[in-house]
Recover the amino acids of this structure.
Protein backbone atom coordinates (compact mmCIF):
# COMPACT_ATOMS: atom_id res chain seq x y z
CA UNK A 1 0.00 0.00 0.00
CA UNK A 2 1.21 3.52 -0.82
CA UNK A 3 2.33 5.39 2.31
CA UNK A 4 2.05 9.12 2.89
CA UNK A 5 5.37 10.58 4.06
CA UNK A 6 4.62 13.70 6.09
CA UNK A 7 7.26 16.43 6.02
CA UNK A 8 6.50 19.45 8.22
CA UNK A 9 7.76 22.98 7.74
CA UNK A 10 10.55 22.47 10.29
CA UNK A 11 11.63 19.07 8.96
CA UNK A 12 13.33 20.18 5.76
CA UNK A 13 16.30 17.87 5.78
CA UNK A 14 17.06 14.94 3.47
CA UNK A 15 18.15 13.04 6.59
CA UNK A 16 14.75 13.28 8.26
CA UNK A 17 13.79 9.76 9.41
CA UNK A 18 10.41 9.61 7.60
CA UNK A 19 12.21 10.16 4.29
CA UNK A 20 15.03 7.79 5.14
CA UNK A 21 12.50 5.02 5.76
CA UNK A 22 10.36 5.81 2.70
CA UNK A 23 10.27 4.06 -0.65
CA UNK A 24 10.91 6.62 -3.37
CA UNK A 25 9.33 4.44 -6.05
CA UNK A 26 6.01 4.01 -4.29
CA UNK A 27 5.41 6.41 -1.37
CA UNK A 28 4.15 9.99 -1.66
CA UNK A 29 5.62 12.90 0.21
CA UNK A 30 2.96 15.20 1.70
CA UNK A 31 3.79 18.83 2.42
CA UNK A 32 1.20 21.52 3.13
CA UNK A 33 1.05 25.22 3.89
CA UNK A 34 -1.94 25.34 6.22
CA UNK A 35 -3.88 28.04 8.04
CA UNK A 36 -3.85 26.16 11.36
CA UNK A 37 -0.04 26.07 11.58
CA UNK A 38 0.25 29.64 10.43
CA UNK A 39 -2.26 30.87 13.01
CA UNK A 40 -1.97 28.92 16.31
CA UNK A 41 -0.07 32.00 17.42
CA UNK A 42 0.18 35.20 15.33
CA UNK A 43 3.57 34.38 13.84
CA UNK A 44 5.84 37.16 12.66
CA UNK A 45 5.36 37.53 8.86
CA UNK A 46 9.10 36.91 8.29
CA UNK A 47 8.79 33.56 10.08
CA UNK A 48 5.87 32.45 7.92
CA UNK A 49 7.71 33.62 4.81
CA UNK A 50 10.86 31.71 5.78
CA UNK A 51 8.93 28.51 6.37
CA UNK A 52 6.78 28.64 3.24
CA UNK A 53 9.71 29.61 0.98
CA UNK A 54 11.97 26.93 2.47
CA UNK A 55 9.16 24.34 2.16
CA UNK A 56 8.64 25.19 -1.53
CA UNK A 57 12.35 24.96 -2.29
CA UNK A 58 12.71 21.71 -0.38
CA UNK A 59 9.75 20.19 -2.26
CA UNK A 60 11.36 21.20 -5.56
CA UNK A 61 14.62 19.60 -4.45
CA UNK A 62 12.81 16.36 -3.56
CA UNK A 63 11.07 16.28 -6.94
CA UNK A 64 14.41 16.82 -8.71
CA UNK A 65 15.64 13.90 -6.69
CA UNK A 66 12.88 11.64 -7.99
CA UNK A 67 10.33 11.83 -5.17
CA UNK A 68 6.59 12.17 -5.81
CA UNK A 69 5.53 15.17 -3.78
CA UNK A 70 1.94 16.27 -3.05
CA UNK A 71 2.45 19.92 -2.13
CA UNK A 72 -0.46 22.09 -1.03
CA UNK A 73 -0.11 25.86 -1.22
CA UNK A 74 -1.88 28.09 1.27
CA UNK A 75 -4.27 29.49 -1.32
CA UNK A 76 -5.04 26.19 -3.11
CA UNK A 77 -8.81 25.86 -3.35
CA UNK A 78 -9.06 22.40 -1.77
CA UNK A 79 -6.59 23.14 1.06
CA UNK A 80 -8.07 21.47 4.16
CA UNK A 81 -6.51 24.06 6.47
CA UNK A 82 -4.72 21.72 8.88
CA UNK A 83 -2.06 19.01 8.82
CA UNK A 84 -4.50 16.22 9.84
CA UNK A 85 -7.03 17.56 7.32
CA UNK A 86 -4.45 17.46 4.53
CA UNK A 87 -3.38 13.93 5.45
CA UNK A 88 -7.01 12.75 5.35
CA UNK A 89 -7.54 14.39 1.98
CA UNK A 90 -4.38 12.83 0.51
CA UNK A 91 -5.19 9.45 2.08
CA UNK A 92 -8.56 9.53 0.36
CA UNK A 93 -6.99 10.59 -2.93
CA UNK A 94 -4.46 7.74 -2.94
CA UNK A 95 -6.67 5.10 -1.31
CA UNK A 96 -4.33 4.58 1.62
CA UNK A 97 -4.45 4.73 5.41
CA UNK A 98 -0.73 4.56 6.12
CA UNK A 99 1.26 7.60 7.23
CA UNK A 100 4.95 7.73 8.08
CA UNK A 101 5.96 10.87 9.97
CA UNK A 102 8.83 12.18 12.07
CA UNK A 103 7.73 13.18 15.56
CA UNK A 104 6.78 16.89 15.46
CA UNK A 105 8.47 19.37 17.80
CA UNK A 106 5.27 20.29 19.58
CA UNK A 107 2.92 18.19 21.77
CA UNK A 108 -0.12 19.84 20.15
CA UNK A 109 0.74 18.34 16.77
CA UNK A 110 1.99 15.02 18.14
CA UNK A 111 -1.37 14.51 19.84
CA UNK A 112 -3.27 15.57 16.72
CA UNK A 113 -1.40 12.98 14.63
CA UNK A 114 -1.86 10.26 17.24
CA UNK A 115 -5.60 10.93 17.35
CA UNK A 116 -6.10 10.51 13.59
CA UNK A 117 -8.25 7.73 12.16
CA UNK A 118 -5.25 6.65 10.04
CA UNK A 119 -2.40 4.24 10.70
CA UNK A 120 0.25 6.82 11.68
CA UNK A 121 3.82 5.75 12.52
CA UNK A 122 5.83 8.42 14.33
CA UNK A 123 9.61 8.07 14.15
CA UNK A 124 11.98 9.79 16.57
CA UNK A 125 13.61 12.87 15.08
CA UNK A 126 17.26 11.91 14.62
CA UNK A 127 18.53 15.43 13.85
CA UNK A 128 19.70 15.81 17.44
CA UNK A 129 22.94 14.78 19.09
CA UNK A 130 21.24 13.17 22.11
CA UNK A 131 18.35 10.75 21.67
CA UNK A 132 15.39 10.88 24.07
CA UNK A 133 16.69 7.68 25.64
CA UNK A 134 20.13 9.13 26.24
CA UNK A 135 18.71 12.25 27.84
CA UNK A 136 16.29 10.31 30.03
CA UNK A 137 19.00 7.88 31.12
CA UNK A 138 21.23 10.81 32.06
CA UNK A 139 18.36 12.54 33.90
CA UNK A 140 17.09 9.48 35.75
CA UNK A 141 17.57 9.65 39.49
CA UNK A 142 19.28 13.06 39.53
CA UNK A 143 18.07 15.51 42.17
CA UNK A 144 18.53 18.48 39.86
CA UNK A 145 19.00 18.61 36.11
CA UNK A 146 21.79 21.04 35.28
CA UNK A 147 22.84 21.84 31.74
CA UNK A 148 26.53 21.93 32.67
CA UNK A 149 26.69 18.23 33.62
CA UNK A 150 24.64 17.14 30.63
CA UNK A 151 26.93 19.21 28.42
CA UNK A 152 30.01 17.42 29.78
CA UNK A 153 28.35 14.09 28.91
CA UNK A 154 27.79 15.36 25.38
CA UNK A 155 31.41 16.51 25.08
CA UNK A 156 32.56 13.05 26.13
CA UNK A 157 30.11 11.38 23.78
CA UNK A 158 31.08 13.41 20.71
CA UNK A 159 34.76 13.97 21.56
CA UNK A 160 34.26 17.67 20.71
CA UNK A 161 37.01 19.83 22.26
CA UNK A 162 38.35 16.89 24.22
CA UNK A 163 41.94 16.05 24.94
CA UNK A 164 41.63 12.36 25.74
CA UNK A 165 39.11 12.23 28.56
CA UNK A 166 39.88 15.80 29.67
CA UNK A 167 38.38 19.02 28.30
CA UNK A 168 40.57 20.92 25.87
CA UNK A 169 42.50 23.64 27.72
CA UNK A 170 41.76 22.07 31.12
CA UNK A 171 38.35 23.70 31.71
CA UNK A 172 34.90 22.56 30.59
CA UNK A 173 33.41 26.02 30.44
CA UNK A 174 34.86 29.43 29.57
CA UNK A 175 31.69 31.38 30.36
CA UNK A 176 33.48 33.76 32.71
CA UNK A 177 35.50 34.96 29.69
CA UNK A 178 32.35 35.61 27.66
CA UNK A 179 30.95 38.64 29.41
CA UNK A 180 32.70 41.68 28.00
CA UNK A 181 30.52 44.73 27.45
CA UNK A 182 30.91 45.96 23.87
CA UNK A 183 32.68 49.31 23.42
CA UNK A 184 30.48 51.93 21.68
CA UNK A 185 32.71 51.99 18.60
CA UNK A 186 32.87 48.21 18.24
CA UNK A 187 33.32 47.12 14.63
CA UNK A 188 31.26 43.97 14.07
CA UNK A 189 30.83 42.18 10.74
CA UNK A 190 27.49 42.45 8.96
CA UNK A 191 25.41 39.28 8.73
CA UNK A 192 24.93 37.66 5.34
CA UNK A 193 21.53 38.39 3.77
CA UNK A 194 20.08 37.31 0.42
CA UNK A 195 18.06 39.12 -2.23
CA UNK A 196 14.66 37.40 -2.65
CA UNK A 197 14.64 35.03 -5.64
CA UNK A 198 11.44 34.23 -7.59
CA UNK A 199 10.20 31.66 -5.04
CA UNK A 200 10.78 34.00 -2.12
CA UNK A 201 9.21 36.96 -3.93
CA UNK A 202 6.05 34.94 -4.63
CA UNK A 203 5.84 33.83 -0.99
CA UNK A 204 6.36 37.40 0.24
CA UNK A 205 3.31 38.50 -1.78
CA UNK A 206 1.25 35.65 -0.33
CA UNK A 207 2.32 36.41 3.23
CA UNK A 208 1.67 40.11 2.79
CA UNK A 209 -1.89 39.35 1.64
CA UNK A 210 -2.75 36.85 4.39
CA UNK A 211 -0.60 37.87 7.36
CA UNK A 212 0.30 41.48 6.63
CA UNK A 213 -1.52 42.63 9.78
CA UNK A 214 0.47 40.40 12.14
CA UNK A 215 3.03 42.11 14.38
CA UNK A 216 6.29 42.35 12.41
CA UNK A 217 7.84 43.88 9.33
CA UNK A 218 7.95 41.59 6.30
CA UNK A 219 10.28 43.54 4.02
CA UNK A 220 13.17 43.77 3.51
CA UNK A 221 13.44 39.98 3.76
CA UNK A 222 16.99 38.63 3.58
CA UNK A 223 16.90 35.28 5.37
CA UNK A 224 18.40 32.18 3.72
CA UNK A 225 15.70 29.82 2.46
CA UNK A 226 17.62 26.72 1.40
CA UNK A 227 20.47 24.56 2.67
CA UNK A 228 23.00 26.06 0.28
CA UNK A 229 22.32 29.62 1.44
CA UNK A 230 22.19 28.58 5.11
CA UNK A 231 25.61 26.93 4.66
CA UNK A 232 26.94 30.25 3.35
CA UNK A 233 25.62 32.04 6.44
CA UNK A 234 27.47 29.56 8.62
CA UNK A 235 30.71 29.96 6.61
CA UNK A 236 30.39 33.73 6.89
CA UNK A 237 29.88 33.52 10.65
CA UNK A 238 32.84 31.20 11.22
CA UNK A 239 35.11 33.34 9.09
CA UNK A 240 34.16 36.79 10.32
CA UNK A 241 32.39 36.63 13.68
CA UNK A 242 33.28 33.42 15.54
CA UNK A 243 36.68 34.66 16.77
CA UNK A 244 34.97 37.42 18.80
CA UNK A 245 31.77 35.48 19.63
CA UNK A 246 33.03 34.52 23.07
CA UNK A 247 34.12 37.98 24.15
CA UNK A 248 30.91 39.80 23.28
CA UNK A 249 28.28 37.07 23.65
CA UNK A 250 26.35 38.99 26.32
CA UNK A 251 26.78 42.53 24.96
CA UNK A 252 23.96 44.74 23.61
CA UNK A 253 24.38 47.84 21.43
CA UNK A 254 21.68 50.15 20.08
CA UNK A 255 23.47 50.60 16.74
CA UNK A 256 24.24 46.93 16.19
CA UNK A 257 21.47 44.37 16.37
CA UNK A 258 23.52 41.27 15.62
CA UNK A 259 27.03 41.86 17.04
CA UNK A 260 28.99 38.59 16.76
CA UNK A 261 26.00 36.25 16.83
CA UNK A 262 25.58 33.63 14.12
CA UNK A 263 21.88 34.03 13.22
CA UNK A 264 21.60 30.37 12.32
CA UNK A 265 19.03 29.16 14.88
CA UNK A 266 16.11 29.26 12.44
CA UNK A 267 18.05 27.39 9.75
CA UNK A 268 19.14 24.77 12.25
CA UNK A 269 15.64 24.37 13.68
CA UNK A 270 13.94 23.90 10.31
CA UNK A 271 16.52 21.42 9.03
CA UNK A 272 18.68 23.49 6.69
CA UNK A 273 21.76 22.96 8.88
CA UNK A 274 22.93 20.05 11.02
CA UNK A 275 23.84 20.47 14.70
CA UNK A 276 26.81 18.08 14.88
CA UNK A 277 28.23 19.36 11.61
CA UNK A 278 28.13 22.96 12.93
CA UNK A 279 29.92 21.96 16.13
CA UNK A 280 32.58 20.05 14.20
CA UNK A 281 33.21 22.99 11.91
CA UNK A 282 33.55 25.34 14.86
CA UNK A 283 35.94 22.92 16.56
CA UNK A 284 38.00 22.83 13.35
CA UNK A 285 38.19 26.63 13.32
CA UNK A 286 39.71 26.40 16.81
CA UNK A 287 42.11 23.58 15.90
CA UNK A 288 43.23 25.52 12.81
CA UNK A 289 44.05 28.51 15.01
CA UNK A 290 41.30 30.69 13.51
CA UNK A 291 39.20 31.08 16.67
CA UNK A 292 40.26 31.14 20.33
CA UNK A 293 39.07 28.46 22.76
CA UNK A 294 36.66 30.70 24.68
CA UNK A 295 34.83 31.44 21.40
CA UNK A 296 34.73 27.86 20.11
CA UNK A 297 33.79 26.39 23.49
CA UNK A 298 31.21 29.12 24.14
CA UNK A 299 29.61 28.51 20.77
CA UNK A 300 29.65 24.72 20.90
CA UNK A 301 28.15 24.87 24.42
CA UNK A 302 25.10 26.72 23.06
CA UNK A 303 24.31 23.97 20.56
CA UNK A 304 25.69 20.83 22.15
CA UNK A 305 24.71 21.92 25.66
CA UNK A 306 21.79 24.32 25.85
CA UNK A 307 19.93 23.33 22.70
CA UNK A 308 20.08 19.60 23.36
CA UNK A 309 19.32 20.09 27.07
CA UNK A 310 16.23 22.18 26.31
CA UNK A 311 14.90 19.55 23.93
CA UNK A 312 15.46 16.85 26.54
CA UNK A 313 13.51 18.83 29.14
CA UNK A 314 10.58 19.59 26.82
CA UNK A 315 9.96 15.98 25.87
CA UNK A 316 10.71 14.56 29.31
CA UNK A 317 8.32 16.92 31.09
CA UNK A 318 5.35 16.30 28.80
CA UNK A 319 2.50 18.35 27.29
CA UNK A 320 1.62 20.37 30.39
CA UNK A 321 5.12 21.86 30.75
CA UNK A 322 4.36 25.05 28.76
CA UNK A 323 1.40 25.79 31.07
CA UNK A 324 3.37 25.83 34.33
CA UNK A 325 3.12 28.89 36.53
CA UNK A 326 4.91 28.09 39.77
CA UNK A 327 5.33 31.72 40.78
CA UNK A 328 1.62 32.32 40.28
CA UNK A 329 2.05 35.34 38.02
CA UNK A 330 -1.13 36.58 36.36
CA UNK A 331 -0.62 40.09 35.00
CA UNK A 332 -1.52 40.52 31.34
CA UNK A 333 1.25 41.01 28.79
CA UNK A 334 1.38 44.79 28.32
CA UNK A 335 0.87 46.32 24.85
CA UNK A 336 4.47 47.54 24.80
CA UNK A 337 5.43 43.97 23.79
CA UNK A 338 3.42 44.54 20.63
CA UNK A 339 5.12 47.84 19.89
CA UNK A 340 3.16 50.33 22.05
CA UNK A 341 5.33 53.27 23.07
CA UNK A 342 7.39 52.94 26.24
CA UNK A 343 9.85 55.25 27.96
CA UNK A 344 12.08 52.26 28.79
CA UNK A 345 14.73 52.50 26.10
CA UNK A 346 15.99 48.93 26.52
CA UNK A 347 12.53 47.45 25.96
CA UNK A 348 11.72 49.87 23.21
CA UNK A 349 14.89 48.78 21.35
CA UNK A 350 14.48 45.05 21.93
CA UNK A 351 10.86 45.12 20.76
CA UNK A 352 11.56 47.35 17.73
CA UNK A 353 14.36 45.02 16.68
CA UNK A 354 12.07 42.02 17.14
CA UNK A 355 9.40 43.70 15.01
CA UNK A 356 11.89 44.52 12.22
CA UNK A 357 14.04 41.38 12.18
CA UNK A 358 12.03 38.62 13.94
CA UNK A 359 15.31 38.30 15.82
CA UNK A 360 16.85 39.34 19.11
CA UNK A 361 19.91 37.68 20.56
CA UNK A 362 19.93 35.62 23.70
CA UNK A 363 20.72 38.33 26.25
CA UNK A 364 18.08 40.64 24.80
CA UNK A 365 15.50 37.85 25.10
CA UNK A 366 16.65 36.84 28.58
CA UNK A 367 17.69 40.04 30.30
CA UNK A 368 15.46 42.66 28.63
CA UNK A 369 12.07 41.28 27.51
CA UNK A 370 12.25 38.15 29.72
CA UNK A 371 13.64 39.89 32.80
CA UNK A 372 10.99 42.62 32.65
CA UNK A 373 8.14 40.12 32.19
CA UNK A 374 9.34 38.16 35.21
CA UNK A 375 9.89 41.07 37.59
CA UNK A 376 6.57 42.61 36.49
CA UNK A 377 4.77 39.33 37.28
CA UNK A 378 3.39 38.72 33.78
CA UNK A 379 1.47 35.50 33.16
CA UNK A 380 4.10 33.07 31.75
CA UNK A 381 1.56 31.55 29.34
CA UNK A 382 1.18 34.94 27.66
CA UNK A 383 4.94 35.45 27.63
CA UNK A 384 5.32 31.99 26.07
CA UNK A 385 2.81 32.77 23.32
CA UNK A 386 4.62 36.02 22.59
CA UNK A 387 8.04 34.38 22.18
CA UNK A 388 6.53 31.59 20.10
CA UNK A 389 4.98 34.14 17.76
CA UNK A 390 7.62 36.79 17.29
CA UNK A 391 10.93 34.99 16.76
CA UNK A 392 11.93 33.44 13.46
CA UNK A 393 13.47 30.42 15.24
CA UNK A 394 10.58 29.73 17.62
CA UNK A 395 9.30 26.16 17.84
CA UNK A 396 7.78 24.97 21.06
CA UNK A 397 10.31 22.24 21.91
CA UNK A 398 13.06 24.88 22.23
CA UNK A 399 11.05 28.03 22.92
CA UNK A 400 9.04 26.72 25.92
CA UNK A 401 11.94 25.54 28.10
CA UNK A 402 13.74 28.80 27.35
CA UNK A 403 10.73 30.98 28.13
CA UNK A 404 8.72 29.10 30.73
CA UNK A 405 11.82 27.59 32.34
CA UNK A 406 14.95 29.64 31.92
CA UNK A 407 13.38 33.06 31.55
CA UNK A 408 10.20 33.01 33.67
CA UNK A 409 11.16 30.43 36.33
CA UNK A 410 7.61 29.12 35.91
CA UNK A 411 8.83 25.51 36.14
CA UNK A 412 10.04 26.23 39.67
CA UNK A 413 13.74 25.78 38.90
CA UNK A 414 13.94 22.78 36.61
CA UNK A 415 15.94 24.55 33.90
CA UNK A 416 17.71 27.18 36.02
CA UNK A 417 18.81 27.07 39.63
CA UNK A 418 17.76 30.68 40.18
CA UNK A 419 15.67 33.21 38.28
CA UNK A 420 17.46 35.33 35.68
CA UNK A 421 16.55 38.75 37.05
CA UNK A 422 18.50 41.95 37.37
CA UNK A 423 18.10 45.58 38.23
CA UNK A 424 19.09 48.27 35.72
CA UNK A 425 22.79 47.98 36.71
CA UNK A 426 23.37 44.81 34.71
CA UNK A 427 21.65 46.28 31.65
CA UNK A 428 23.72 49.43 31.97
CA UNK A 429 26.94 47.42 32.23
CA UNK A 430 26.23 45.22 29.20
CA UNK A 431 24.60 47.78 26.87
CA UNK A 432 24.46 51.39 25.76
CA UNK A 433 20.66 51.56 26.29
CA UNK A 434 20.58 53.48 29.56
CA UNK A 435 22.40 56.61 28.42
CA UNK A 436 19.55 57.36 25.99
CA UNK A 437 16.70 56.46 28.34
CA UNK A 438 14.03 58.70 29.86
CA UNK A 439 14.56 56.92 33.15
CA UNK A 440 17.78 57.13 35.12
CA UNK A 441 19.53 53.84 35.84
CA UNK A 442 21.26 55.48 38.81
CA UNK A 443 17.96 56.57 40.38
CA UNK A 444 16.67 53.98 42.84
CA UNK A 445 13.43 55.79 43.71
CA UNK A 446 11.55 58.85 42.51
CA UNK A 447 9.97 59.99 39.24
CA UNK A 448 13.08 59.04 37.20
CA UNK A 449 13.82 55.72 38.86
CA UNK A 450 14.58 52.94 36.39
CA UNK A 451 11.63 50.50 36.63
CA UNK A 452 14.04 47.55 36.65
CA UNK A 453 15.49 48.95 39.90
CA UNK A 454 12.06 49.02 41.53
CA UNK A 455 10.60 45.78 40.19
CA UNK A 456 13.70 43.70 40.88
CA UNK A 457 13.35 44.26 44.64
CA UNK A 458 9.61 43.88 44.43
CA UNK A 459 9.99 40.40 42.95
CA UNK A 460 12.51 39.34 45.59
CA UNK A 461 10.28 40.70 48.33
CA UNK A 462 7.14 39.03 46.93
CA UNK A 463 8.81 35.61 46.68
CA UNK A 464 10.97 35.79 49.78
CA UNK A 465 9.67 32.47 51.14
CA UNK A 466 10.65 30.64 47.99
CA UNK A 467 14.02 32.24 47.25
CA UNK A 468 15.56 33.24 50.56
CA UNK A 469 16.93 29.77 51.22
CA UNK A 470 18.56 29.53 47.78
CA UNK A 471 22.32 29.91 48.41
CA UNK A 472 22.75 31.66 45.04
CA UNK A 473 20.30 34.37 46.16
CA UNK A 474 21.31 34.83 49.77
CA UNK A 475 23.61 37.75 48.95
CA UNK A 476 20.73 39.63 47.24
CA UNK A 477 18.56 39.30 50.34
CA UNK A 478 21.41 40.43 52.57
CA UNK A 479 21.84 43.53 50.40
CA UNK A 480 18.09 44.25 50.55
CA UNK A 481 17.93 43.74 54.30
CA UNK A 482 20.83 46.12 54.88
CA UNK A 483 18.93 48.95 53.21
CA UNK A 484 17.18 51.52 55.34
CA UNK A 485 13.60 50.40 56.17
CA UNK A 486 12.10 53.64 54.88
CA UNK A 487 13.93 53.30 51.59
CA UNK A 488 12.71 49.72 51.22
CA UNK A 489 9.13 50.81 51.82
CA UNK A 490 9.46 53.56 49.20
CA UNK A 491 10.88 51.09 46.66
CA UNK A 492 7.99 48.68 47.22
CA UNK A 493 5.36 51.44 47.07
CA UNK A 494 6.78 52.89 43.88
CA UNK A 495 7.08 49.44 42.33
CA UNK A 496 3.43 48.78 43.15
CA UNK A 497 2.37 52.13 41.67
CA UNK A 498 4.34 51.33 38.49
CA UNK A 499 2.67 47.91 38.22
CA UNK A 500 -0.74 49.46 38.60
CA UNK A 501 0.00 51.92 35.82
CA UNK A 502 1.21 49.00 33.70
CA UNK A 503 -1.99 47.03 34.36
CA UNK A 504 -4.20 50.05 33.60
CA UNK A 505 -2.43 50.45 30.24
CA UNK A 506 -1.01 53.87 31.17
CA UNK A 507 2.20 54.75 29.32
CA UNK A 508 5.25 53.57 31.27
P1 LIG B 1 24.01 32.45 18.70
O1 LIG B 1 24.16 33.37 19.84
O2 LIG B 1 24.92 32.63 17.56
O3 LIG B 1 24.15 30.96 19.30
C1 LIG B 1 24.39 29.82 18.48
C2 LIG B 1 23.31 28.79 18.52
O4 LIG B 1 23.22 28.19 19.78
C3 LIG B 1 21.90 29.29 18.23
O5 LIG B 1 21.69 29.42 16.85
C4 LIG B 1 21.04 28.21 18.86
O6 LIG B 1 20.83 27.15 17.96
C5 LIG B 1 21.91 27.72 20.01
N1 LIG B 1 21.43 28.28 21.29
C6 LIG B 1 21.95 29.31 21.98
N2 LIG B 1 21.31 29.46 23.15
C7 LIG B 1 20.35 28.53 23.19
C8 LIG B 1 19.35 28.19 24.12
N3 LIG B 1 19.21 28.83 25.28
N4 LIG B 1 18.51 27.19 23.81
C9 LIG B 1 18.62 26.52 22.65
N5 LIG B 1 19.56 26.79 21.73
C10 LIG B 1 20.42 27.78 22.00
N6 LIG B 1 16.28 29.59 20.55
C11 LIG B 1 15.64 28.99 19.54
O7 LIG B 1 16.28 28.37 18.68
N7 LIG B 1 14.28 29.06 19.41
C12 LIG B 1 13.52 29.74 20.32
O8 LIG B 1 12.29 29.77 20.19
C13 LIG B 1 14.17 30.38 21.41
N8 LIG B 1 13.45 31.07 22.32
C14 LIG B 1 14.09 31.68 23.36
C15 LIG B 1 13.32 32.34 24.33
C16 LIG B 1 13.94 32.94 25.41
C17 LIG B 1 13.11 33.63 26.46
C18 LIG B 1 15.34 32.88 25.53
C19 LIG B 1 16.02 33.51 26.69
C20 LIG B 1 16.10 32.22 24.59
C21 LIG B 1 15.49 31.61 23.50
N9 LIG B 1 16.25 30.90 22.53
C22 LIG B 1 15.58 30.29 21.49
C23 LIG B 1 17.70 30.72 22.66
C24 LIG B 1 18.57 31.80 21.97
O9 LIG B 1 18.16 33.08 22.38
C25 LIG B 1 18.54 31.68 20.45
O10 LIG B 1 18.85 30.37 20.08
C26 LIG B 1 19.58 32.61 19.82
O11 LIG B 1 19.34 33.94 20.21
C27 LIG B 1 19.50 32.49 18.30
O12 LIG B 1 20.34 33.42 17.68
P2 LIG B 1 21.71 33.02 17.01
O13 LIG B 1 21.51 31.93 16.02
O14 LIG B 1 22.35 34.28 16.52
O15 LIG B 1 22.48 32.42 18.24
C1 LIG C 1 5.54 27.29 12.00
C2 LIG C 1 4.87 26.69 10.81
C3 LIG C 1 4.06 27.49 9.99
C4 LIG C 1 3.94 28.95 10.20
N1 LIG C 1 3.39 26.97 8.95
C5 LIG C 1 3.52 25.66 8.66
C6 LIG C 1 2.79 25.06 7.60
O1 LIG C 1 2.00 25.70 6.93
N2 LIG C 1 2.99 23.76 7.35
C7 LIG C 1 3.83 22.99 8.09
O2 LIG C 1 4.00 21.81 7.80
N3 LIG C 1 4.49 23.52 9.13
C8 LIG C 1 4.37 24.82 9.44
N4 LIG C 1 5.01 25.36 10.51
C9 LIG C 1 5.85 24.46 11.36
C10 LIG C 1 4.97 23.67 12.35
O3 LIG C 1 4.19 24.56 13.12
C11 LIG C 1 5.88 22.81 13.20
O4 LIG C 1 6.21 21.67 12.47
C12 LIG C 1 5.27 22.39 14.52
O5 LIG C 1 5.05 23.50 15.34
C13 LIG C 1 6.15 21.40 15.25
O6 LIG C 1 7.41 21.94 15.54
FE1 LIG D 1 16.20 50.06 30.68
FE2 LIG D 1 16.33 51.21 33.09
FE3 LIG D 1 18.37 51.41 31.40
FE4 LIG D 1 16.09 52.70 30.92
S1 LIG D 1 17.46 53.06 32.62
S2 LIG D 1 17.32 51.55 29.45
S3 LIG D 1 14.60 51.25 31.69
S4 LIG D 1 17.59 49.53 32.31
Amino acid sequence: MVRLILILGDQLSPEIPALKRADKAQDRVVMAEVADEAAYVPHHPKKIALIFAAMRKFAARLRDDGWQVDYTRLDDEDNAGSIPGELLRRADQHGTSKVLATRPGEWRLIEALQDMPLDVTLLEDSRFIASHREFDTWAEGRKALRMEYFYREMRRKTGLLMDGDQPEGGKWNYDSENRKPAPDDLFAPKPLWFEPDATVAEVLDLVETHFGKNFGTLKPFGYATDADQAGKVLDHFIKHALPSFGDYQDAMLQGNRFLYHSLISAYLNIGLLDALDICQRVEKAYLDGHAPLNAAEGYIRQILGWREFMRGIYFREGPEYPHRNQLNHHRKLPPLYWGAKTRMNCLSHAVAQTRDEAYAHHIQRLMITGNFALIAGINPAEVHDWYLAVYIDAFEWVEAPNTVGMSQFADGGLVGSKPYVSSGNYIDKMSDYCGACDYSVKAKTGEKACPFNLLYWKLLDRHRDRFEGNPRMAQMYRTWDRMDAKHRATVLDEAEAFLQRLSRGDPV
Summary: DSSP finds 22 helices and seven strands in the chain. Residues 261-265, 268-269, 302-303, 306-307, 310, 361-362, 365-366, 370, 387, 391, 393-394, 398-399, 402-403, 406-407 surround flavin-adenine dinucleotide (ligand 1) (CB under 6 Å).
